[in-house]
Each structure stands twice: as C-alpha cells, then as structure tokens.
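Troubleshooting: if your tokenizer reports a length mismatch, compare your output against this known-good record of 243 residues.
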Amino acid sequence: MLGNMINVRINPESFHSGNYCGRVYDVHSGESADDGNGSILHNVLVFSPDKPMDNASVRVRVMAVTELRGRIFYICAEEETIIYEPLIREVLADRKDFNPTRITCLYEKSCGAVIFRRHSGNVEYLLIKNRKGNNWGFPKGHMEIHEDERQTAVREVREETGLIIEPLEGFRTISEYHPKGRITKQVIFFVAEMPVQDIVIQKSEIERFIWADYSLAVKTFRFNNDKKVLAQARSWITENLFY
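Known-good structure output:
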C-alpha cells in the first residue's frame, strides 16, 4: 500500500496539532473508504502541514504503515507532501494512544559523515563494512525523534565507531536511492576530520573498518552513490582545507 492513493473519510471531531522543526502539522483521524459492503478497511491518520483540513472526504497518499494494538494504521498526506518517521513520532509524541514500535515509511532518512584523517602526507577516509548488508560505506544511521541532521550524524558515528566528531561547516550533500522498490532512502552526509585515534566498532552492526586513500576507497565501494559522495567530499576538502 505504500505510495498508493486512497480515499479517506475524516472524523471532524478527532484532531491533533503538533510541530516538527518549527513547522506546524495538523493531524486528522479517519477511516479509509469502505469496500462497497459497508466494512471499514483501515484506520488512517492524515498529516496536513500548515493548514487545517475541513473536507469530510479526501484523497491522499499512503506515506507510512504501522500496527498499533493489533490494528493496521495508514499514515497519509497530500500527494506533494513528504513525511519521515521522526516527523511522525515527534508530531504525535504527546498522544499516549499512539506509540508504535515500528513504522514502515515510503520515505526514509538517515544521516552520517565522511570522516578523513591526514596520514603520512595523504588523506585517508574511514570506511566501515556493515554486517547486515555486507557492503562498505560511511558511518550513518536513521534519525531519531527530537534530532536534527547534524545531531544524528554525530550520534551514529559515535555509536558505530566510538569517534566523537564535529562536522565541518560548509559541506552537506544528499545521497538518494531506492533500496526496497517504492521506498525512497535519503542520506545526508557531512564531513569531519579526525586525528589518528582508536576506533571501537559497534560489533552488532559493523564487521570491520579500514582507513583508505581515495583510490582504494573508490575500488572498495560497490555502489556509485558512495563513490559520488566520496568524490564530492574529496573535492570540498581539497578546495577548502588544502588550498
């Protein structure tokens, strides 16, 4: 159902308002249109940013699916709106009746960092090998409630490598791909420099790590998205730190 357009009957008496990163979201409860036999298909929460929704019936896109107390909920928004899991959780944080453990979202968002060091006259980049995907990449992970992008990147790097970084000002790049069919994954990367320092990997998530120069890193990466992020970071580092 993710990404599908559905008809929703809004309950005008059920209304909630919350904010995320300074933007107000109105949330309306409702039910998906019946199947013609009078039976209700699913419970629905409709997110509407910056404006109330006063129509009794609306057509919206399914942005996320979750289960709560044995019932399936569709979390929807108007077609042009994009919502991520942290947004959903934060807007609904003060609703005690809504605390699902897992939300499957049409749009996923993670943050991480390209970490480099100066070693023996070269610039080397920190690459980690993820146990689950068995691929090499940069430290990164999903945003959590009440975090901004930089906070997520700092936390994820610390959790996966033990390093405490301070992202450099002036670099932010976006990598976007589709890991599971219709799902869109957006990853925000920052750049951080670290001196030679011990790394303590998160053994449950990370298999191993290496420091690699640009040539070796390009050969190690499997996906073009990672190679593109590396090239952008290298160009920025060269122009801003080694001019």
